[in-house]
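Incident log, support desk, overnight shift.

02:14 A customer reports that sequence design results differ from what the structure should imply. Their input is reproduced verbatim below. On-call engineer (initials T.W.) acknowledged and began investigating.
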């Protein structure tokens, strides 16, 4: 009689299911106590050259327990690799936001980036995105100037094909009108998937701390992003 093969569940698949289950428990807790939000992004790379890239990015954000659309943006982005470990970028972003009093405010944002990146070994890579932003609002407010600095660590995986990497990041926002760090975004854990050739998908949890006055406002969100490369 042939010997039966023991069914073995891939360890990374087990981890992924545990991650999703943890996320559902986490968001259930937060929905009861905090303003839980959901962010959905789409990145389309129209031109992916050896050194020069052009892409379009769009994102919608929901607040009030992820039930109300309050912000969307669309961005045209360019990037140029001046060195194997350094990329420069220039972007334009249009933003539409709903304020707490339900007034709509639109804005135009110019973004310049200097982004070093390096590889520690076959699996571990690091990225540091440094972005300088100038924002003009259509409600007549003065232009604002700020910078954002995001450090990301990526760890590549090869055990289960759809899941390609784990990552974590932390980003600080500096306001130069009144010099101060007024926002921090921490992603303790994110997952990167390859769904098909030229199609990827990221999902992550983010903790956002914003200080507009003396007090800080804590926000928790579940985010996902679909990435398409032609």
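02:41 Re-run completed on a clean worker. Output:
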């Amino acid at each position: 009689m042939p010997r039966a093969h023991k069914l073995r569940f891939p360890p990374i698949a087990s981890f992924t299911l545990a991650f999703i289950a943890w996320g559902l428990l986490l968001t259930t807790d937060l929905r009861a106590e905090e303003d839980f939000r959901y962010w959905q992004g789409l990145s389309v790379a129209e031109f992916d050259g050896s050194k020069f890239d052009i892409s379009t990015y769009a994102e919608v954000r929901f607040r009030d327990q992820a039930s109300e659309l309050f912000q969307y943006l669309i961005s045209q982005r360019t990037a140029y690799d001046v060195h194997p470990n350094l990329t420069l970028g220039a972007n334009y972003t249009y933003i539409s936001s709903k304020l707490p009093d339900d007034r709509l405010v639109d804005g135009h944002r110019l973004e310049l980036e200097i982004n070093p990146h390096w590889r520690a070994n076959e699996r571990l890579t690091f990225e540091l995105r440094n972005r300088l932003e100038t924002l003009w609002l259509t409600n007549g407010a003065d232009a604002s100037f700020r910078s954002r600095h995001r450090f990301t660590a990526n760890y590549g995986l090869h055990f289960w094909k759809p899941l390609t990497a784990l990552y974590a990041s932390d980003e600080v926002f500096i306001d130069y009108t009144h010099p101060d760090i007024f926002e921090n975004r921490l992603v303790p854990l994110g997952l990167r998937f390859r769904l098909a050739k030229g199609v990827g998908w990221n999902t992550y949890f983010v903790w956002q701390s914003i200080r507009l006055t003396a007090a800080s406002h804590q926000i928790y969100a579940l985010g996902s992003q679909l990435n398409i490369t032609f």
